Amino acid sequence: MQHLVLLYLACILAGFALTNIPTTALITASIANFFVIIGGVAMIVFSLVLLYLGVKALLGK
């Protein structure tokens, strides 16, 4: 279970990294906006999973 929590934290960090991709010659503004949306969704989803696991552990199930 410990490894899953660390994996979820890594996914949240990866989502944060996707939201901070700079616009360059290879990554246009539209692609950067797509990465921002995907990164935001990843952060929200994996944060909710961590909250669920925390509440589940708190209740002892």
Shape: elongated
Mean pLDDT: 91
* Cα-based radius of gyration, to the nearest Å: 15 Å
Distance between the termini: 13 Å
Low-confidence stretches: none
Provide the β-strand percentage band: under 5%
Order of helices and strands: HH
Helical fraction: over 70%
Major sheet description: none
Which structural category fits the helices and strands? mainly alpha
* SS field, number of helical segments: 2
What is the number of beta strands?
A: 0
Overall description:
2% of the residues are buried. The chain is elongated and about 50 Å long. It has helices at 2-19, 29-59. The protein starts with a helix and ends with a helix. By secondary structure, the chain is mainly alpha-helical. The model has no long low-confidence stretch (mean pLDDT 91). The protein contains 2 helices and no strands.
Q: Strands, helices and their partners?
A:
Layout: H1 2-19, H2 29-59
Helix pairs in contact: 1-2
Keyword list:
61 residues; mainly alpha; 2 helices; elongated
Produce a short descriptive summary.
With 61 residues, this protein is mostly helical. It contains two helices and no strands.
